[in-house]
Amino acid sequence: MNQDNFILNVYKPAGMTSYDVIRYFKRNIGIPFKKIGHFGTLDPFAEGVLLIAFNRATRLNNFVHDELPKTYLAKGILGVFTETGDLTSEISKRDETPYLNEKIAHFPKEFIEEMLRKQFLGVYWQEPHKYSAAKFEGRKLYEWAREGQDIKKEKKRREIHKIEVTRYEFPYLDIRFEVSSGTYIRSLFLECAQYLGTLGTLQNLIREKIGSVSIEQSMKQDQWPVREIPINIKPYCLDFLRLLPYPAQTFDAIEIQKLKNGGTLRSRESLESLSFLWSHDEGKQIHSLLQVKDSQLCPVINF
Asked: What is the CATH number of the domain that holds 289?
């Protein structure tokens, strides 16, 4: 653990915004810091892994966003539709066609999984949900939507890596998705329901993993720090190498200082296939994230 720059694996409960969690830790962490931020917003109704970074560790946000898949368990209901894509708003449409109860209700779980995998695995083009935190002209889309304005944004390329139907007890359908960052699960679940021939909305959404970081190791709410009460946060701090598993090399004190001063080093070995590299000292403490450019090691972030 870097004592000044670190990341906590926190379990965000349903009913709180991601910034509510940040605000809580700002007030109660009991450790001096200059900067705090989270890696990837979770909707208020959703729960699960929220990574909170301190000081220069916040600069890893783009790397986490660009490179790590996210795993969600989406618990939904078939045959109903809400404007928000979840049960925070009233059901505005119901599927009353015979096909829902006579056909879809009797689909085997394995059949649904096979259908969805064939249709959605791989490249997936998706428009941001109108009740999302994506921005248009400096305002979040849900702010526009609450004023009755439906802002259409260009579809963006996403990746669906895995789909697993974990439960189907009509009308309740639970699907585990592993997706690239930026994928809106409310929209994906609705599209899955539509592909099956009906409507759908989420009851609950759990972010189970960011990369290999899972909820099993998350800091649950009853373990969060309380102001003026000492707490050992070390068990909840993430090893940078585990979070972003780039290769690592050991450097001596002179080399580490040169990198921290903004200098570059020539690679000792061929690193043609690598883009990034961690530097650490003989005690295995991380000091820099390096970019590999033409056999030169250039510091991107110094800790």
From this structure: 2.30.130.10
Task: Out of 20, 43, 239, 281, pick the active-site residue.
Answer: 43
pLDDT score recorded for residue 131? 61
Considering only CA atoms, which of 51, 56, 54 is closest in space to residue 18? 51
Average pLDDT, the chain: 90
Token pair for 162: 């895995």
Asked whether residue 237 falls in the same domain as residue 255, the answer is: no
The pTM of the full predicted model, rounded to 2 decimals, is 0.90
Kindly indicate the confidence band of residue 209, based on its pLDDT and cuts at 50, 70 and 90.
very high
Query: Are the C-beta atoms of residues 176 and 164 closer than 8 Å to each other?
Result: yes
In order of 128, 137, 153, 299, the CA distances from 141 in angstroms are 9, 9, 10, 36
161 to each of 82, 153, 176, how far by Cα in Å?
Answer: 27, 24, 11
CATH number of the domain to which 54 belongs: 3.30.2350.10
Q: What is the pLDDT of residue 45?
A: 93
Tokens coding 247: 């290769």
Q: Are 60 and 120 contained in the same domain?
A: no
Tell me, yes or no, whether 128 and 194 share the same domain: yes
23 and 101 within one domain = no
Over residues 140-155, the pLDDT tens digits come to 666 665 666 665 667 7
Assigned domain for 1 exists: no
Per the annotation, the verdict on 43 as an active-site residue is yes
CA dihedral 291, 213, 184, 96 (to 10 degrees): 160
Q: Find out whether 287 and 250 touch, Cβ atoms under 8 Å.
A: no
Confidence (pLDDT) at 4: 85
**Domain of 150?**
74-204
